Amino acid sequence: MFSRSQLGFQAIPLPDRSEMTEAQARAEAQGFLDRMKRRHTTRDFVDTPVPQDLIAMAIETAGTAPSGANHQPWHFVAISDPALKAKIRDEAEEEERQFYAGGGGDEWIKALEPIGTTAEKPHLTIAPWLIVVFAQRWGSFDDGTRYKNYYVPESVGIATGLLLAALHHAGLNTLTHTPNPMKFLNDALGRPSSEKPTMIIAVGHPAPDATVPAAAKIKKPMDEIATFLEG
């Protein structure tokens, strides 16, 4: 992606501007807030197909995220192949069984009780798409030499947030899944050692009888998540 000959700084005019009145800005912000409040994480999917171009557009949205030194240290692997999804499920459930057998520790397992999770992960094969998010520890110049990436967890976190918002905006449901450890995903998906898998996102439409944990809808109030220091 990067060439050593293209590392110099060059300023260009701001390509896009968003000019709104305060009323318009408030309406847009409220509309987005209302839409995102309708985003629900569910473990109950149907296998109704989802067009690949919808997944691709959501990933392209994620790729617009800001990143350390603009290195864009992420890679997204989108999977609809049933055999590969089954392989991922088998390996993820093996990790999960070890976790729930005590590997996760009593405190962590106790904290998950209100969410109702178990070692069984049927969503990994039922959902029509899995998107595996990889964080790139380092990249390579066009001549093959290695360069360091910066603020990788922060950058990938921002991109993943945009991805989830884009998928929701397209009318799709998602479930984030983080088996631990996740090294098996590098081998299963042929990704290099420079990349660290951070999560699996199941994507699709909710089942008619889909449920969500009541505890998941309890959100912290504004005074607990933000502080405003006005001048």
3D architecture notes:
By secondary structure, this protein is α+β, with helices and mostly antiparallel strands. The protein has one domain (42-207): NADH Oxidase. It contains eight helices and seven strands. It has helices spanning 22-37, 52-62, 82-103, 106-111, 123-126, 152-169, 184-189, 222-225; strands at residues 45-46, 74-79, 129-136, 138-140, 146-148, 173-177, 195-206. The strands form two sheets. Strands 1, 2, 3, 6 and 7 form a five-stranded antiparallel beta sheet that branches. A two-stranded antiparallel ribbon has the order 4-5. Strand 4 and strand 5 (146-148) form a beta hairpin. Helix 2 (52-62) packs antiparallel against helix 6 (152-169). The longest helix is centred in the middle third of the chain and has 22 residues, at 82-103. It is globular and about 55 Å long. The mean pLDDT is 94.
